Amino acid sequence: MSFKKFLQSKGVIGSLIIILFYGLLMVGVYFSGYKAIPNKVDQLPVAIVNQDSDSRPLTAQMKDKLPFKHIKTNLTLGEAKAQLKDRKVYLIINVPEHFNNNVKDVTHNSTANLKFYINYSNPTTVTTTMESASKALGSQIQKSVLLKQGQGILTAAELNQLQKEVTEAVTANPDQQEKILKQANATKAKTVDQINSIYGKIANSYNNNIIKINPVPLGMHHSMAPFFLTLSFYIGSMIAAMLIVTSYKSFSPLIGRWRAYLYTEITIGLLSLLTPLIIVGLGKYMLNFNTSTYWQLWLTHSIELFSALNVNLIFSLILGQLGIMVNMPFMLIQVISGAGMIPQRILPDFFKIMSYISPSFYAIQSDFNILYGGNGTQTLWLQLLMIGIVAIALHLVIITFQKNNSGIVKPG
């Protein structure tokens, strides 16, 4: 019986359809859906509730600093909290009463406490964004407060010293009081100007810059691309292995186990070479990477699909369609152990151990290297390929101890 007929069997055709279906579906849906993060985060509404009439300029300052387009300033604190719970706003910045006076209090007997309210019953991307915005704004205002207090302390000390000197001079020369006071006022104005100038320079004497190494283009669909690309192939391989083993078991009584297995491995090789051309091609269209990147990603996911199909084939050979009862949990484990969302270094020990035998881990790390930069891609490819080779060795052991099935329906 010819290899052509094996390729035309329902299991092989079903495998091809499943790999393409899940690959194109996941890449198309997830890449298009996750484009909203962070591109549209600035459209999340927030509220500023200023309860201190002396801090009105601070409201305008905060509106300029916050990275959000919809900032509500006409709500009471109670109204804002109600909208926060209803998810009509996602952050409240509350300037309490006497905030400005507390800022100016150089005795430090009172505290100027700016309050940020965040509803954590929201997606992590939302709460993380609001936390980052709150910390950035809080640091800027704290810097301003410290400068203002330092300026106030220095000004008060200088003016107190000047007042003391003026009092002593007037006491010693009462007939020149008018002249002394005139000179004192001029000195006072000059001193205040000098202090203001000094603190103006201090305010501009520090800044910080984030230097990005291997920057990722803006958009969550870019940062999640290695995870989604890899998972799309792995899910397809899990179901495809279940289907392709039906062709193996249908043909093995007719042409022998070893020849049927040879056809199975050749089919896996063809699927691994051809289907990534289309699925990675959709990724190229949606992420707009160059042709060199395309071919490197094609190689990564060809090796991934080869290894994943062979790994999933292990329990499909042993248990038939029930093999999915083992393959499905292993796939779910790889969602975490693949380290596409959580770095391997901080994974729980179980998932860290599983990452070493996880095809997804090596594919995801390779994708990060290829798309955004990193070292050791060739080593990752070899490690990924080695998983497939070990799986094939296990197949050989399984097939050696399996008996030809009888009564199998002839291949269609």
UniProtKB/TrEMBL annotation:
Pfam families: ABC2_membrane_3. It is a multi-pass membrane protein. Its main location: membrane. The keyword Transmembrane helix applies. PANTHER family: PHAGE INFECTION PROTEIN, TRANSPORT PERMEASE YVFS-RELATED. Residues 15-394 form the ABC-2 type transporter transmembrane domain. Coiled coil: none annotated. Keywords: Membrane, Transmembrane, Transmembrane helix. It is found in: Membrane. This is ABC transporter. The chain crosses the membrane at residues 12-31, 227-248, 260-287, 307-332, 380-401. It comes from Leuconostoc kimchii.
